[in-house]
């Protein structure tokens, strides 16, 4: 009887640990799915930076940005995009055009101590079209800055060359959500940050400041100018009106399935507010299953005792 009591007690403790761990990430996913600004979200202090890096990489793959836009994406830093009145953007967040019409604040944090952010970089934001776009027609350039540096975690534009000033997204009506990337690029809109080596040579048509919003082929631009590795990226979705086209679905990113994931420890880890999404029909399965098992065992134990 004592042995059975000990077994049930251990299972109870294990179940509570699972519920606590899973619930932490479920709260994040619900808030992100509702489109809430991530300034009101708090990324758990025990989510390692390596997991956050793996999560944004997985988001790019699930959204079709890899391999259609970039052959691969293994970030060495995290890119945070924040709009006034909105806060920090979550990966793939669906935003209104009014929310993103003004230039955002960009910050960067290295994923580990071996990554130096002391160099010079190119920051860009491009419209990558709707999910499923094969990128054969190139992209739309919404922002392009050469020669930015990083002070602390903030982008410094003081000695940079602003080739194209920030132009807020304005996708064609009815086309469905575009992906904007700050990669420092993504209808999806994408922001992307590239290392800019000393050998960097700007292309003729994008060598001088003041170039307006216009088309570009990001792959061709990278090859022609000699840009270095893609360091960091972020993207969000935006659309105008009601979609009249069928857009390919994307899969959620389940944080607990990423290689760097481990059960949270009590020691804090350096993090940045880029929450990962934990969605899906089985999101609450672990909690329900564990609770039911423990309840049944305790009921059986009490029955045997009395």
TrEMBL record:
Residues 1-17 form the signal peptide. Coiled coil: none annotated. Keywords: Signal. It comes from the Eukaryota. The keyword S-adenosyl-L-methionine does not apply. CDD domains: PEBP_euk. Pfam families: PBP. This is PEBP-like protein. It comes from Clathrus columnatus.
């Amino acid at each position: 009887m004592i042995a059975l009591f000990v077994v049930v007690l251990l299972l109870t403790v294990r179940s509570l640990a699972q519920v606590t761990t899973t619930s932490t990430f479920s709260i994040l996913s619900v808030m992100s799915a509702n489109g809430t600004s991530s300034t009101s979200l708090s990324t758990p202090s025990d989510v390692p930076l390596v997991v956050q890096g793996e999560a944004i990489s997985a988001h790019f793959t699930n959204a079709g940005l890899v391999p259609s836009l970039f052959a691969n994406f293994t970030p060495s830093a995290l890119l945070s995009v924040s709009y006034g009145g909105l806060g920090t953007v979550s990966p793939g967040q669906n935003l209104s055009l009014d929310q993103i019409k003004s230039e955002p604040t960009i910050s960067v944090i290295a994923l580990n101590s071996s990554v130096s952010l002391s160099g010079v970089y190119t920051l860009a934001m491009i419209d990558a079209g709707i999910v499923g776009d094969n990128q054969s027609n190139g992209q739309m350039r919404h922002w392009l800055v050469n020669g930015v540096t990083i002070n602390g975690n903030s982008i410094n534009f003081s000695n940079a060359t602003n080739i194209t000033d920030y132009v807020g997204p304005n996708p064609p009506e009815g086309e469905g959500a575009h992906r904007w990337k700050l990669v420092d690029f993504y209808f999806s809109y994408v922001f992307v940050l590239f290392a800019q080596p000393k050998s960097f040579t700007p292309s003729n048509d994008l060598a001088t400041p003041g170039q307006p919003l216009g088309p570009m082929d990001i792959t061709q631009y990278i090859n022609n100018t000699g840009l270095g590795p893609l360091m960091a990226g972020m993207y969000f979705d935006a659309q105008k009106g009601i979609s009249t086209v069928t857009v390919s679905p994307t899969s959620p990113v389940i944080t607990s399935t990423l290689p760097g994931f481990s059960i949270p420890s009590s020691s804090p880890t350096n993090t940045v507010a880029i929450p990962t999404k934990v969605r899906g029909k089985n999101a609450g399965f672990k909690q329900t299953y564990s609770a039911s098992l423990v309840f049944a065992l305790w009921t059986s134990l009490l029955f045997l005792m009395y």
